[in-house]
Amino acid sequence: MDAAPPAAVGICGLWKRFGQQVAVAGVDLEIPAGSFFGLVGPNGAGKTTTLSMATGLLRPDHGTVLVHGADVWRDPVAVKAGIGILPEGLRMFERLSGRELLQYGGRLRGLPAAEVDRRADELLRVLGLDGAGGRLVADYSTGMRKKVGLAAALLHNPRVLFLDEPFEGVDPVSAQTVRGVLKRYAASGGTVVLSSHVMELVEQLCDRVAVMNAGRVVARGPLDEVRGGRSLHEAFLDLVGARDDGAGASLGWLGARPGDAR
Q1: Cβ of 251: how many Cβ atoms within 10 Å?
Q2: Buried (b) or exposed (e) across 208-232, using 16+ Cβ within 10 A?
Q3: For residue 256, is it within any domain?
Q4: How many whole angstroms separate alpha carbon 46 and alpha carbon 73?
């Protein structure tokens, strides 16, 4: 019997500490090739730290990450050639135009100039940036930066795409465009690993999900299995232990004005 092909991403025993603060505490995840995988959790849960370690941007204290069987830290060149990354707080070359940014990234990855130009023009058009391709990135809005960052991550046709809060600051029209591009990428066999706070978005896009809280994975698996007959939002609140803390009852003064009837 033939061995099963390796998962697109295999994360085993991942730990990261910053001083006395444990950011990620023994995360294990297996992300099947061709899946659209959502990583969700409250602020400070360790999502961004996990993705940073999974993509070689941050060295873990312990643990391993394999991308299509290659170790992120032992074989970084091979891994980074096959992944695309849209990190949170993406920094770009401000004095390049959007088209120049894509041309630079494509040539840096060894693509022929003519092919880079063809792909860059197509990505700019599909993402609604064709009219802004000649403008400096410094003049781009937050949403435009997200879209050109996504274009840069897709330009070399990676096998795995890592996205950290890709819809933050993106208007609804642009978000719809980005969703369409990501769905097409996943349908063609690519693997998407997406971190987001927007549960409705994860439900619309993802077929598998992991919920993180306090540096640990508290649930993982197919979307319907994790939801358990509820919305993902409801399941998420239960999984991370979010409850009404009675703050409304203790803020009776809020909004009250002198002379208001009591």
Answers
A1: 10
A2: bbbbbbbbbbbbbeebeebbeeeeb
A3: no
A4: 20
The total of other beta-carbon atoms located within 10 Å of residue 73's CB is: 13
Largest CA distance in the chain: 81
Apex CA 9: angle with CA 5 and CA 11, to 5°? 120
Which of 63, 64, 57 is closest to 87 using CA atoms? 57
48 lies in the same domain as 166: yes
Residues 15 and 76 in one domain: yes
- Supply 52's token pair: 């940073």
Q: Under the phi-then-psi rule, with left for phi > 0, alpha for psi from -120 to 50, and beta for the rest, what region is 149?
A: alpha
Question: Residue 261: inside a domain, yes or no?
Answer: no
* Residue range 36-65, pLDDT digits in tens: 999 999 888 999 999 999 999 999 999 999
Residue 253 lies in a domain: no
Residue with tokens 């009852």: 249
Strands, DSSP E only, in the chain?
9-18, 21-31, 36-40, 62-67, 70-71, 83-86, 160-164, 191-195, 208-213, 216-222
Q: Specify the pairing of strand 9-18 against strand 62-67.
A: antiparallel
The predicted-structure confidence for 77-97, as pLDDT tens digits, reads as follows 999 999 999 988 778 888 999
**Is residue 175 domain-shared with residue 130, that is, in the same domain?**
no
Q: How far apart are the C-alpha atoms of 259 and 262, rounded to whole Å?
A: 9
pTM of the model: 0.89
User: In total, how many domains does the chain have?
Assistant: 2
* Same domain flag for 232 and 199: yes
**Domain region containing 44:** 1-82+158-242
